[in-house]
Amino acid sequence: MLIGVDYTAAVQQGGGIGRYTRNLIRALAGVDEENRYTLFVAGRGDDGLGPWPANFRVRSVPLSDRWLHILWQRLRLPVPIQTVTGPLDLFHSPDFVLPPAGRTPALVTVHDLSFLRVPDCFVPAFRDYLTGAVSRAVRRARLVLADSESTRRDLIDLLGAEPGRVTVLYPGVEPRFRTIEDRAELEQVRARYNLPMRFLLGLGTLQPRKNFEGLIRAFARLPAADDLHLVIVGGRGWMYEEMLALPVRLGLEGRVHFAGFVADADLPALYNLAAVFAFPSWYEGFGLPVLEAMACGTPVVAANNSSLPEVAGEAGLLVDAADLDALAGALVRLLSDGELRARLVAAGREQARRFTWEGAARQLLEVYRLFDKGRWREDEGHPRRGR
Description:
Helix 8 (183-192) crosses helix 11. This protein is of the alpha/beta class. Helix content is 41%, strand content 18%. Mean pLDDT is 91; it is low at 377-387. It has 16 helices and 15 strands. The chain has 2 domains: 2-172 and 356-382, Glycogen Phosphorylase B (Rossmann fold); 183-353, Glycogen Phosphorylase B (Rossmann fold, 3-Layer(aba) Sandwich). The radius of gyration is 21 Å and the shape is globular. The strands form 3 sheets. A 7-stranded parallel sheet has the order 3-2-1-4-5-6-7.
């Protein structure tokens, strides 16, 4: 088959969907030598990510991703993706929306529906754009891939997607997320970001959905300990101003640190250095940082909503994101109960091993194959081979 993939996020975005797309398509290149792939990139011709196998090629347009979204999603200019990629048997967009693809069957990956589940966490104009563009993509796609069963249910319940057109493709954890024994490596990262010796870690783009405000308030309820700090890592997103001012109002100056965006290569060391990883988000389509922290041997407390129970399993402490006393209590338990820590660390490593990018790529390849010559049918929410 000739398969097109929108690879723009992999090139343009350092984390999040960019890292998802890089890992998934790189793993796919390692397991499929049969199909031919065209990776579409908006904005520049050099993929910047090293050589590809012979059955992969990269095609780009000089227009930025922003301008293509304007032309395709806002103005709905009917210029098909094949203008750049050439003829295709199948097109896959791993980033929520679909460009025009003519009669070519299309797949879209929808990572979450946070803009519908927690609409107050979004700037209205951005929320309205996502609602329209994602809804259209789900209607047009032959098959929709969701990161979790939770997101699959949301697609059915909130956007009316037919159950037979939505299937789950779990992301994976990279092998580099592991326990690091080299103290020198860890201390280099500590020095690079001026991290305290003992700290709780929160990670994600600074935006209301991540509930960092709740995490800061819960941290303020912990028993006084001058050597314990809270470090929040992530680039600035939107609606974060009140959260940045909160530590001063709570008398936590010098104990709450906003480290900003951290280089992707430093994330494993960051997890390793943390005493506890806290992820009290209001909503997650998957919550990959939970598994990354677990793979690094760091105990986790997370919210008990959306996909997070599905991701954490029995390997983390789960609490109501709105219950600050419960969150503070879980943090205290993980800091003080050595037996509990040891049990959850062991369970966390086992939980993280269940999610691999190679496994995700092999499942994706099977999905692609089901479209070969139209050999697939809708049955119980998952595409299967026709009789």
